[in-house]
Amino acid sequence: MELGSVSTASKSSLALGLLSAFIVILLTTTFVRLSGAHAGALGASSAPPETYLPSISDIMIGTIQPRHERIWQAEQARDWDFAAYELGNLGGAFRRLGRAHPIEQNTSLPDMIESVTKQQLEDLKSAIDRKDDAEFGKAYDALSEACNSCHQALNHGTIVIGRPTGATQSDLIFGKAGR
Ligand code: HEC
Question: Is 150 in the pocket of ligand 1 (CB under 6 A)?
């Protein structure tokens, strides 16, 4: 009876020992896994963020098109200074477009931009410098045709650019600078 009870006691203490060893292993592996996952999460957050490269259409809507419109609106308000300023920005936007997307449909975009817009931008600049409305109108239309010739060449002939029409919704006030 006594022997039996001793052996039962030692059996149960062995079981208890095994159980606590099992719990220790379980806790340890869980902790290692969790700290591994934590390190992974930290690693992910310290990785550099993915760089956003605006698409050609993003750049068109975001900068090329609004500048094209503003040049027109400024001339309508006879704010030649602003027209000159915005024309410079349009040229800069075209250069950045070429750097951001050097090749489009197996064509060099910077070369394409240069060949279709260089002369037109220069003519527009000289019309603005001379404050010549008639020359401005011609040069502006020629620039819009340049926009369209590239759209056609790159299979986007559906995008047709011309003189802005309708009331200006712009919050820019032309011709009031320095007054
Ligand atoms: C060198 C070529 C080139 C020139 C020059 C060019 N574009 Fe574009 N434009 C494109 C291409 C290509 C797309 C279509 C991009 C796409 O959707 O993948 C486009 C798209 C557009 C769009 C439509 C964007 C949209 O998502 O709705 C507008 C608006 C636009 N261009 C305005 C202009 C204006 C205004 C000019 C001239 C001041 C101009 N573009 C000159 C190549 C050009």
Answer: yes
